[in-house]
Structure to design on (113 residues):
């Protein structure tokens, strides 16, 4: 069974950093396109980043240069390193197996000004 579980969300001050973790099970995260998304209160879910099986990464303009996604194949885990956080980054963050359309339950990130 394909499953994803995010963790690492927290309350952080503006300018701070967090690293989110997405643990995969039932499939190798290295073999599929994995994506990160976020949903702020009252807003639609939006795409944040993509990590392709070959290692290529893609980022939304709003996070380019501040966020980095990577993975640890041995741990079957995806990461989202978030630096220079802004209050507008406040949202629930989700990872997704893009090919099976499986989502994790999400983890809350709150950035205070």
């Amino acid at each position: 069974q394909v499953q994803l579980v995010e963790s690492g969300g927290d309350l952080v001050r503006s300018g701070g950093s967090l690293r989110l973790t997405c643990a995969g099970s039932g499939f190798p995260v290295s073999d599929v396109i994995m994506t990160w998304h976020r949903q702020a209160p009252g807003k639609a879910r939006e795409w944040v980043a993509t990590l392709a099986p070959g290692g290529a990464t893609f980022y939304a303009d709003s996070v380019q240069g501040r966020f980095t996604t990577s993975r640890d194949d041995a741990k079957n885990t995806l990461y989202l390193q978030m630096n220079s956080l802004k209050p507008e980054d406040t949202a629930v963050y989700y990872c997704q197996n893009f090919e099976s359309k499986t989502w994790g339950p999400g983890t809350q990130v709150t950035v205070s000004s």
